[in-house]
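Fold this sequence, please.
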Amino acid sequence: MPSRDQIRDLVERYVAALDGQDLDTIVGLFTEDAVQDDPVGEGANVGHAAIRAFFTERFLVAFDARLDGPPTIHGSFAAFRIAVEIPAGRTPFRILITDLVEVTPDLRFRTLKAVPDAKVLNP
């Protein structure tokens, strides 16, 4: 099982790749058969091709992403919040996303469930 520090580092690499819109790095952080449910309940992306297509579409719009606090870790699972800001003139659009991931022994995501909430940062 990965250590707490290894999982934290994986989460930080994921968020840095998201912020940098680094498609190849992001896809490489998932297992070949990973299930990414983003947003949760609206249909999962299964496998590298589907995950790549998902992020390719998201990266059509420039945004900034950062961790909103440290990840919480239990065994091979981690939960963390990502604050995303999309420039939109004078008032940027912001969204807070909570991700729950399962990490494999070789330090990749087997599952990712994302719960986005645009209302918490845009009253």
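The beta strands are 30-37, 45-46, 64-67, 72-74, 77-86, 93-103, 109-117. The chain has a mean pLDDT of 94.
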